[in-house]
Design brief:
2 domains; alpha+beta; 429 residues; seven-stranded antiparallel β-sheet
Length: 429
């Protein structure tokens, strides 16, 4: 039977073989070259010829094969956002109220390579042939492979996270239930002791380092907030702990008190002042070698938010939301962690361009859009509920924000949420 060279499965096989040949000639491609460059119609998406070797220098290594199976797919998105440059016309006409909501249904012609070494997992399930190959590879995560992986604890934590994240995705999509015990079994085999998981030696981030990446941030004045977790920040679903730090300008004499004081029914919140800043930090909750949840210092993503202005929404309002709110995202790539080892810090995190593109699956359906548009959905200043909060939903009354009483409070909460995930997995056995 003739082979169709455009078939995604065949393309994937060709790329894997090509990657194996390349490894003897040159190191894996640098982060920038693995993604389409600025100005490209698919800016930020993985290049078809990219070599992905996050867990081992040999792209064909077992751990890299599993990574690609989870985090790299050629597929058509369920939705295509109007925010993509090719989907809208003149910027002045497009950046009007609701620009972030525009979308259409995805079609076969919208197929692209999605994923790569980042946070967003594009995979929803596996064909029978893919599942059969996965069963063999997951069973092979044992012996010397595990010993070598555990010798680099940070990578072991992240690889285990990938396994459990895939299990969570299959639970959510109700696909390939036969893979769940294999994913969990591999996760348990690579598990580390609690003593190792709680060690400061695993750290990849210090809050003070944020100021080096964004000097204007008043890190020393920031207050960590406890609040109710939404699904996007609930470790039952994302297997991550998250901490939010907030600071208002020094000119705000009452500080954060107006937003952290319980409000009576119908009482309006104060307007957040221009210059208000926030930092979101997300790190991995791991499974220890006794089967318990353990929040680690392996931070993999840091985001910042600043209220720049309250000018009208317009194309020439040079902020992420186009109505005054700016974001920055720094993401730690697995390959960077493998190559930098103990020296890894926030300085090594990849800067995510807010105009770059991604397939956002965690937010409901596989939607192809820009980071700017996705963030604006929840953090816009105007045309939404509680506009006085200027895109800082952590300050909403129903979220019950308050200063964190114990530095470990958020992590212990995430561990309790993670245990619910483990209970859900146990029900599938």
């Amino acid at each position: 039977m003739p082979v169709n060279p455009t078939c995604p499965a065949v393309v994937s096989l060709i790329l894997t073989v090509a990657a194996s040949a390349l490894v003897a000639q040159e190191p894996a491609s640098a982060p920038a070259s693995r993604r389409q460059p600025a100005g490209h119609a698919d800016f930020g998406l993985p290049r078809p010829d990219a070599v992905w070797a996050p867990y081992h220098a040999d792209p064909a290594h077992l751990l890299n094969r599993l990574f690609r199976a989870f985090y790299l797919v050629h597929a058509a998105p369920a939705e295509v956002a109007a925010a993509l440059p090719r989907e809208h016309g003149d910027a002045a006409d497009f950046f009007v109220p609701g620009w972030y909501f525009g979308k259409r249904a995805g079609e076969a012609t919208d197929e692209r390579w999605f994923g790569g070494d980042g946070r967003q997992m594009p995979r929803e399930g596996f064909t029978a042939a893919e599942a059969a190959a996965l069963r063999e590879d997951l069973a092979a995560v044992d012996g010397e492979v595990v010993t070598a992986l555990q010798a680099t604890p940070r990578l072991a934590v992240w690889f285990q996270h990938d396994l459990l994240r895939m299990a969570r995705r299959l639970l959510d999509t109700r696909q390939n239930p036969e893979l769940l015990p294999l994913l969990v079994g591999a996760a348990r085999r690579v598990a580390l002791s609690r003593a190792v998981l709680e060690s400061d030696a695993l750290s990849t981030f210090r809050l003070a380092d944020v100021q080096a990446r964004q000097p204007e941030l008043q890190v020393a004045r920031m207050v960590e907030l406890e609040r109710r977790s939404t699904r996007l920040f609930d470790a039952e679903y994302v297997q991550l702990w998250s901490s939010v730090y907030l600071a208002v300008p020094e000119t705000a004499a009452s500080g954060l008190a107006p937003w952290l004081t319980p409000k009576g029914k119908g009482e309006k919140l104060a307007s957040v002042p221009i210059g208000t800043q926030a930092v979101l930090v997300q790190g991995i909750v791991a499974l220890d070698d006794e089967g318990n949840a353990c929040a680690t210092d392996v931070v993999i993503e840091v985001r910042t938010q600043v209220l720049r202005n309250r000018d009208p929404l317009a194309a020439d309002n040079a902020t992420t939301t186009r109505d005054g709110v700016d974001f920055a995202i720094w993401s730690l790539e697995r390959q960077t962690l493998r190559e930098r080892g103990a020296a890894t810090s926030l300085a090594d995190f990849r800067t995510v361009d807010m105009e770059s593109q991604e397939l956002f699956r965690d937010y409901g359906t596989r939607k192809h859009t820009t980071y700017a548009a996705q963030c604006t959905l929840c953090h816009r200043r105007s045309n939404g509920p509680e506009e006085e909060l200027a895109g800082f939903p952590v300050l909403r009354s129903h979220v019950s924000p308050r200063p964190v009483a114990d530095p470990q409070e958020r992590r212990r909460k995430a561990e309790a949420e993670f245990e619910k995930f483990l209970a859900a997995l146990a029900k599938t056995n």
